[in-house]
Design brief:
With 490 residues, the chain is α+β, with helices and mostly antiparallel strands. The protein contains 15 helices and 21 strands. It has 2 domains: 131 residues, 3-Layer(aba) Sandwich (Glutaredoxin); 249 residues, Rossmann fold, CATH 3.40.50.
Length: 490
């Protein structure tokens, strides 16, 4: 012990130690304090979101709508950010930290399927076809048991680039999609759309884009098969999409019972759908719907045609309570490809009110079964202005009103090229139609997406603040040169 004290005193009295050792200790102490302060600051920043957002598009900032939603939360929500190895989206993770900082009800954890593979089996089955991947968000509310999985397809807005002939990301909708998901999973009920199957209707593969559009609009989609014992929910619209086989007697009774309870219908009848389905045809007639046999073709002089393609129609949206919001928003363009028309001069039951929604310009009905060229009008083809979209309201004996929307084509909801080509007019028509049928708004918040690309600076954009930002690094370099140049030979 005595020797240790003498050795320590000798070291401390050593001139080299007093000149250099103290500096080393001081440097180590400063580094340790800096690391401690940095760790503390990082923890505080994550907890209270203290870091300012200087990005040009404010990608990690929250708006008033999000702050209002978070302030009113009464359920706990946990967000699992499943991140791939080496592929962290720093912008998204920074935004999630701000959600957790803004509300004690929100918690966030960064996950990996390699470390936590249970996430796949725990959540994938709860949301239908959407699966947990190695790059997604899982928004879960334990109280309601509801879950929403978000992927890049949900929060990126793409547009067609005519120069590269491909889709490219132009906007990020992180805040809108995440806030809507939080609100959706904390609600007791979710607007649901039912799709009938069992009669050769469009398959899930056929309607995948439409179902994705509905899910993005925060609707739940449920397929029902009456022959399998599935029950119809009168609170949810029933879609019947181009059946190839007829209804059974008891199935027609089920549909009329559904209508008597106030159930509503969204019907698609394409030009080549069979018209010899007696029960199904009788069901449509009960709502005053009588399809034409044949294909609607635009005449050459028709202004509602589509660039010389007579089979592609740009119908005129009529002024109705259903379509008025779309017309006012400038979303009145929808394309129909190979459409069927419906009669306005048929026999309409006294308890039905029929309203045209979509009307052609000058057109004719082409009966393609005669073997002639379908693109050339033939003598005897009926011509005029035709309805390709109808709205029917039927007053039932129960006092309930059952509504039906019928369209002669829904390729605008199924084809991504057509859907993107009309600036989301088709998607807007779909969601507005369901809103009118169900009388219930899905979760749809007014939160604008953020631009991906920043516009280049022009001379008119050069402000004093921007000049200072550009000159500051140059001034630092200049100061360093002025200080170090005289000492260059030391």
């Amino acid at each position: 012990m005595k020797r240790l004290k003498m050795w320590t005193r000798k070291i401390m009295n050593n001139r080299k130690f007093r000149c250099g050792g103290f500096s080393v200790l001081l440097t180590a102490a400063v580094v340790a304090v800096a690391l401690l302060v940095g760790a503390l600051a990082d923890g505080l920043e994550k907890r209270y979101a203290l870091r300012a957002d200087f990005s040009f598009n404010a990608a990690t900032s929250q708006g008033d709508v999000t702050r209002a939603v978070l302030a009113q939360l009464d359920q706990d929500v946990h967000v699992y950010a499943v991140v791939p190895d080496g592929g962290r989206d720093e912008t998204l993770l920074a935004l999630l930290d701000r959600y957790a900082a803004a509300s004690d009800r929100i918690t966030v954890s960064e996950e990996s399927l390699i470390r936590n593979p249970v996430l796949q089996t725990r959540f994938s089955g709860e949301v239908g076809e959407k699966q947990v991947t190695d790059d997604c968000l899982i928004v879960a509310c334990p109280a309601t048991g509801k879950t929403r999985i978000l992927t890049a397809d949900d929060y990126t807005v793409k547009a067609w680039n005519t120069e590269t002939w491909s889709y490219q990301t132009v906007q990020y909708a992180y805040e809108k999609v995440i806030t809507e998901a939080i609100l959706l999973v904390t609600q007791a009920t979710t607007p649901t759309v039912q799709i009938l199957e069992g009669h050769g209707e469009m398959t899930a593969a056929d309607t995948s884009l439409m179902e994705s559009t509905l899910e993005s609009a925060n609707y739940a989609v449920r397929r029902v098969n009456l022959a399998s014992g599935d029950a119809l929910d009168p609170a949810s619209t029933l879609m019947i999409l181009s059946p190839a086989y007829d209804l059974a007697d008891w199935e027609m009774d089920k549909l009329m019972e559904f209508a008597a309870q106030g159930g509503d219908f969204f019907i698609c009848s394409r030009y080549n759908d069979p018209l010899d389905l007696d029960h199904y045809r009788a069901f449509l007639r009960a709502f005053g719907i009588e399809p034409y046999e044949g294909l609607v073709m635009a005449k050459e002089e028709d202004t509602a045609g589509y660039y010389g393609a007579p089979v592609v129609l740009r119908p005129f949206m009529q002024q109705t309570p259903v379509t008025q919001p779309l017309i006012e928003a400038g979303q009145d363009l929808i394309l129909l490809t190979a459409a069927r028309a419906f009669r306005l001069d048929g026999i309409v039951p006294d308890d039905v009110m029929l309203t045209p929604l979509l009307m052609t310009g000058q057109a004719y009905i082409r009966h393609y079964e005669d073997g002639s060229d379908v693109s050339i009008q033939q003598p005897g083809d009926e011509e005029g202005v035709f309805a390709v979209g109808l709205w029917a309201e039927k007053l039932l004996e129960t006092g309930e009103v059952s509504q039906m929307l019928v369209m002669g084509d829904i390729s605008a909801f199924l084809n991504p090229v057509i859907q993107s080509g009309v600036k989301n007019g088709s998607a807007a028509f779909l969601t507005q139609a369901l809103r009118a049928l169900q009388g219930q708004d899905p979760v749809n918040l007014y939160i604008l997406p953020k631009e991906v690309n920043r516009e280049g600076l022009s001379l008119g954009d050069v402000t004093p603040a921007k000049i200072v930002i550009v000159m500051l690094p140059l001034l630092v370099v200049l100061g360093a040169v002025l200080v170090l140049w005289p000492r260059r030979n030391l």
